## 1
Amino acid sequence: MNTLDDKKRVTPSESQRIELRSLVNLSCEPISHFWPMKTFIHHNPLHGLEHLTFEKAIKEGQRFLKGRGYLSSSENRKYLQQGRISEDSINEALKDVSQNATISISDREISHLEVLRSILIHGTGKVATDVCSAILQPSLNQPEIRNLFKNIQDLSKKKAPEYFLKGHAIREKKDLATQYTLAEWCDQTLGTNVQDQVNGEIIKWVSGFLDEGHAPWGMPERKKTFYKAWKELALDDASGSILGIQDWKSKILDLPDRPEDAVLESLSLLAIPKNLWDGYFSLQLAQLSGWTGFIKWRSEQTNYAWQNAFPIDLIKYMAIRLFYERELVMLACQEKLAIPGTYASINEYLNNHPTGYGLFREFRSRVLPDEVVDYLDMSLFSQDPLNIKDLDQCDSRLISTWEQTIEKQEAESQTLMVMELAQSLNISIQDLVKCTPDTLSSLLDWIEQFPESHHGPIWLEALESSYIKDFAKKISPNLEKLRKSDEMEEQPLESRPLSQSIFCIDVRSECFRRQLEEIGGNETFGFAGFFGVPICYQGFSSEQQTDQFPVLLKPKHVVKEIPRASQGKAAEKFLEGQQIAKTGHTLLHDLKENLVTPYVMVEAIGWFFGFKLFGQTLRPKWFKKVMSWIKDSLVVPIRTTLTVGKVQREEAYEMVAAKHRAAIYRLFTEKHDRQGGTVPHEQIERLRKLALNQIPSDSNENEKLFRLLKWNASDLEQFILTLRKDFNLHERDFSYKIQEITKTGFTVSEQVNYVDTALKLLGFTKTFARLVLLCGHGSTSDNNPYESALDCGACGGNHGISNARVLAVMANNSQVRQRLVERGITIPSDTHFLPGQHDTVTDEVELYDLEEVPATHRKDLLRLQHDLQEACEKNSRERLARFPDVPAIKETDKASPLTKVRSMDWSQVRPEWGLSGHTAFIMGRRLLSQGINFEGRTFLHSYDHSQDPDGKYLEIIMTAPMIVANWINMEHYFSTVDPIVYGAGSKAYHNVVGNIGVMYGSESDLCVGLPIQTVFDGDKPYHDPMRLFAIIEAPLERIASIVGRHEILQRLARNRWINLIAIDPDTKKFFHFQLMKDWQPIN
């Protein structure tokens, strides 16, 4: 039995457990956090490896996650053919890897650089070894090719041990438990599926445990933690026995109570050396990096309700995973090799039978050459357990024949590669034959030292170099305008714009801003979409708060949406309607998930779902109109405001009272089969106060209620008790809620700081228009689990309107404006800040809090609305041209209705391109980018270096919005270069799991990254996988000083996770911040 009996088991000490926890925490470095999809957070999938250079981190990602780190050479060659990569950029990129060496062929001197460039552009010509002979053989009747082949054969050097049969054992001893797990070794060597079996069991348990309300029946025992719940439930799980694990129940019962002890026990039984533990943990965590990434994130959230209710961490996960691996590896090794499934036994096996094992691996990995088969009894390979001794004692002639065959195949492969290179360099085969052995040897070495796996970094450097040079050319006219503007001794008086709009820096705002400015009279700015105000926001009637800020920040303030003062009764009716809708939704959900009722439902209300199915599929626009009409007729409209100011106690009292009234309406609806509207408002209020002991019980008033409801005293008493027990209508909770509400909002001083920082950071400190639009953004689409990935990243994957409304309230506050004057900012009394939201799918801009707009500004408002509508149409027309599934739009046709259909169509896998295609993040004055069509590929953040002499505001931009932009960039980069490992694959196969993410079909890893439809246009990349160009218009020393003060910026810039570019304000020249070279001019 593969266990430790009680007599032999030694209980680990607390220090051993602490050390183990530390090792597991360190080993999860290659695993990036995964946030729940309801607030999709763009992130770098190799975030934990940012302390390494970009190139080294990609190698680590390949080792643990098996992911590609660069776009394929074939795609890069297409870029070269299209002119997006220049040959000059290729030469520059190759300089760092080329030697200052040449070889003479005929009368030509061929440099190492030429050879590398030719291999990069045309390929190595390398083909699979076992087909080389079939390709080369027909050409060997040509004397020059035959002679070349002979010359290359003569150059064959004594092969290193890894080229021979024993090489398999040598390599695998080194790689076992460092490059792959014992389960992976079993699968690739023995043809088992241990890894899939382990993963299948783990997915079953973690998906059930981590479910957040998606499953109709939740996994039991979750409050006991993941490990303890599994231990209890696994006793009744037949899967272990089905997998062949003997004494399943006794082994589960025998496991230690603590997960740390279980991990240590499994490591002992697997005999993994302690010096390999950290790497082995990384390999284990990487097998299901989506699930472990989510567990990693969730275990670090101290205020996350689901984690507090059902605790899980990576130690608990590791305890269960290693248990399955130790049992299944033991089973596989005993059955296939007749040895224990331990690291030590496998190593000993490889050490004792290197030749036989080499033959077995050759048989498993490829077809054995005919010359070798003649010496072998092929039945030896199909025996269980493997007869390794007979294989190990094979005829010495077999080994010699095998080695000669391999040497011949190697020479054939080299001949084909040399011929391919000669053709691309315009060298004749005759000249190659005449080469000296040293020349031919050097040429072969150059080819072998530059395999296809080394090409990715070169292509990336060349693509980025070509891009930044083209970019510099593109904005050179604007740089000239800036130069002339800066050289003017006296700046002309700025006329007051008709409107000013502050948009998010998002690339989708770039196009819209350009369209709005071209209409005339409209000035725009770019600012991170949370508008510099990190808040926790709770919408009216919502039970949940959303984090409206980048994940890098921590919130200090809570803001709640509440009805306006005149909306008391409307608010009650609204909440009553919401409750009815919620009750109906819950009832429908329960009926659908019940074992019996679905059979009845199909007959009774199946037609309704048919109406929805055909409407959404065939006529989405018409269906949306019908549903909107139904919703508008049922939902009571309500006007709201936000608790931006500190809430007074009287206001807090009314807010809590409104919630309590809604609870009473709910109780009447759910338990007493009455609509709240049939009970007078004064009686609802009286019941509320009775529950809170705020008024004494009055027999006369009670009689009125009894007659109305046909109650008696006992019914009233029971109703009050239910309110207190089930709805928390009691004095203590009432006081607590009032206390919590009074914590919301901002003091006047805090509001002054936020407005002052926002305006100065933008360089927006004078010449204010009568209307200033603060425009957040969000995305609307149907049947799209990735909808929040299209929302505002700076708002934590949420819509940005709440932040816009908060800053507008602050900026309109007369007390705030008075104090801003003392700080050098005078906002005219007739300037009004107006919040709005840009829908990035439909391009419509919805304006909010219009009741606050002064009557004197109505004409200004109408003009702004007209301009926004015109910009919407123009921008929709420009964006639709980028979709492969949209035909050309006639000049006479409207474009905006087509974008609306994309937001309604539940079969649409690409409602918008989102942030895909982005390349750069510009921080500078608007004149730097104004009027240039960046095709929705550039983040634009307003910044005026002349108003920021100490770099205070630039530091804010570089340490928050720029970091978020880098995360967005890395998410898109890796999802493009490997859409399966780092991306989420195709949406066509996605199923939502646990309300936290998606997976393929019914069982897979959680899909991280972006779906292929987001970053690919058919079979070609839509997004250009380049590292973000952060382009800053500011003095070089100011930028360098900020980088020097922040470790995160040093990592990103020096390790080349980001391309940091400076535009010198004095010379208007471009400089690139590079590793060990500081600022290098870009020619």
## 2
Amino acid sequence: MKKIFFKIFILLTICLQSQSYQFIPLTVEDGLAENQVYDLIQDRRGAIWMATPGGVSVYDGVSFINLNDSAGLPSNIINCLYEDVKGDIWIGTHKGLSVYDGVKFETFTQKNGLPSNIVKSICEDGFGRLWIGTQYGGLCILDNFSKDEKVFTPFKINFGQGDKLSVNKIIETPEAKIYVGTNQGLAEIFNGKVKTYTKKDKLKDNFIHDLEEDVNGDVWIGTQSGICLFSNGEFISPLKIPNISTGAVKTIEQDNNDNIWIGTVNNGVIRLNINTYQSEIYNEDKGLSEDIVLSILEDKHDNIWVGTKGGGVNKITRSSFTYLGIKEGLQNEKINGLIQDSKSNYWLATRGGIIRHNGVDSFQLFNKKSGLPVDYATTVFEDKEGNIWAGTLLGLVKIKNNKIDRVYDFMDGLRNPVKCLFQDRGGVIWIGTEGGGLGKLNGEKIKFYRMLDGLSDGRISAITQDKSGKLWIGTKSGGINWFNGLDEFGQINEEDGLIPSNFINCMIKGPRGGIFIGTNSGITKFDENRNTYKTFNTSNSKLSSDNIKMMLFDEDNQLWIGTNKGLDRISFNPPQITRQTGEYISEVKHFGKSDGITGGQINGNAICEDFDGNLWFGTNKGAIKHDRSVDHISDIAPQTYLTGLELENKIVNWSQRNYSVEPWSRMPKDLILPYDSSTVTFHFVGINHDNSSEITYYSSLHQDGEVFADTLINNESKRDFTKLPPGEYEFVVFACNEDGAWNYDTPSKFSFTVSPPFWAEIWFILLISFIIIITIILFIKYREKKLKVERELLEEKVKERNQEVLEKNKELETVNLEMVSVNKEIEQKNNDLNSSIRYALTIQKASFPSLQELYSELPNSFIYHLPRDIVSGDFYWYRKTNDKFVIACADCTGHGVPGALTSMIGIALLNEIVGGNKITDPAKVLELLDKGILKAFENSESETNDGMDISLITIDKKTKKIEYSGAYRPLIMVRNDELFEYKATKTSIGFKDVENKIFEKKILEFKEGDCFFMYSDGYPDQFGGPKNKKLKTKTLKEILTEGSAKDMKTQKAIIQKRLNDWMGNTEQIDDILVIGIKF
């Protein structure tokens, strides 16, 4: 009795203690069958089952599967749900009781002995009996329900209020007591005896909606008039929770933290601690989707699920994040800066002014009316003397003893918005501005350093100081400047390769030295001891974003970063408290919307750690407080299940293909796929209601015991395999939660077979082998018989042929004698022809001028002449006339005898024109030579193509001039290792393609050391080299240029060697002529 009065006393003196929870609603828009949720259970697989008037909705943390009358249920109106010891789900509907074994439904109605088709409650006792409560049909027991024959036995409870008994809730206690909540009161059943309790026994109301036993063994009772407690056979009633009117209580649930969650019809959910009797209400004002609550469930991850009358279901999770916004007393929610001062006050720089908050309930606003130059505050900072400094768009404010003490504005030279503040070791306050450079406040005056003083950018975003005392200044687009505080600036930028971007957002000192730099392309750590830089970004770490807005190290030396996508908590390996090499990010935990951060982007400079170790972040929707004591690491690994198997990218009903299916997953048993239909897609899920979006899957496929497909680790809940070859396969998948807990010991597996084509089956191979062997044997026998016949015929024919051969041999002997005579005649004629050609060579050589005359006049010169045949179509010619020396390099049409004949005509004409007529003008010589060639062949019976290409020069040593004309053959001059080419007239000598030909003349002055070259096309057109290509004019020019410094004898040797090396074993294709002269 003392215990009861003590509880009543506590209940009447209760106080409200707030905890932070996050509400995640799920409605029909998310896949829920209906927004009314009457009952909730979690099965052993981890899925949440929801009873609605539109059927049963099963939620795996990612998606819903809805089961209704089309799937086999007798009705879509579902009243209650229960999982038995075998894992089967019992479903109470408006048209009977159904049980689902993961494959099919079995339904029982009044025809099977059920007292009423409207089933309101189900409970299995420790003896394996199923207790079933119905509307207006009372209570019945299904004994031995695992057997094929189901027998329902009515169980009478008499409240003395008539026969229309509705049983709304049934529970069993550890002592094997059965408690039954009805529309007429409470019944206690133990050892076959029934005790009934009503309002006469101080029950709050006879109409009971729900029952829940707590850890103390007391039974909480939700009635139409509120809640009461049944303890040791007595009711504590009326049970009053101060300032809360519960009204009708539809549902009650106890969690693992000794809290009772009470679902009301007008006040949402009440959380009541059964030890301290402290309570808190969660309703629409706190984030609940609706205040009329019909069902409550705590899952295996300690999440609370709340089913409502029209707002769907709400998942309530304990959140480590608490918001401080307008509802809590802030005058403005857009926070640009945030600190806790040495007196434990919080200072917030907002777009509506500076706010001082005592951490409980006091808020003091400093704005334009209070003396700020403008309401828009950009940053806030406390100096070593305890003064508060606030930057604004139009100046800097000093607050002393909670009053504005001094304002620095344009009169002090501060004409730009203040973006950041920093106090160095000497007490000097440094001001970073937006476009105005760096300000140094020492005393009352501000000295500015701008781009003209050495800054790379006037937009300052962050300031810190290294161990040597140098300032590090981060800018918006100019990288980092270091400053010795006097007159020397230095720069570190992206172009140096030390930092990933010139856009610096923030900088902080590390726990054991080093400077951490936040950019829009990742984080860079500068190690002051080793003078090294290391960058972490999304490509080499698991950061949620490269755009780093702010950074802070907590008391555990973990780095917190704010990005445009929320918060990341980074753990380094080795930790920041050690000095080791090989540092890398070992873990990144992301906090976003699903964790309770709904403020979006974390603002730069708006971060601090308070004296209790809590972290504070500023957003555009208020300040976020992170309670690290709630931020626990979950060691509960996801439960992984296969949910489907697609074949050839199509959903398959395996039952219709005559396959037995596995319960719940409906995966086919003993699956055998044909070889031409072996593209499969596995669907799976890792059930983890803490954060289903952060589940990582590890999947692999094994063939005949060996790994067939590489292990894949990602967040996708499916895996494709295309055109699998024949073999025995096993697919394996397990999952990991965001804290690294894997279900290695309980992966999901599926085995199947891809059958080979019939022609690869053993029986088919044996059959074909047998047929082939028989065929070969029969063929051999047939061939033997055929060959015997053919051999006899062949022997007969051989005899005939032998006789014919003897006769033919006699004829061939006669023919051979005749051919010997003809060959001797041909050989004699060839010898005569070669003798004639050699005589022609003698005549041609006799027509060539003497080389001695050339070398006497031009000692440093050479002529490299290499005919393809015995006689040549290329010829050289020279003569001295009137103190001038005329030299020609000619290439006649064709080679061999035809070319030699043309060359001799050309030589004769040149002798006549230059030697006889004393003409030395090269253009005139070519003009007369052309006419002479045409006249020589004018009596030809057919159209002639005989002629020549020629280059001709006249050398005057007295004037040191060279006159040059050419017909398709150029003149090359090399002077001081530089090559000059003089083009010829584009027409040949002797051809009739152009009438009245005019040959262009060029006059050149030569100097000592100049080299001149004339050549036919035989040298550059010669094939050879590794790819059997032409040597080309470009290569010849390179040869002439490279050797121009040497004497002409050496140059001739070089030209000859390069040609021989190029040709190798390749046949010469044309006559070759090169003439070189050096002055």
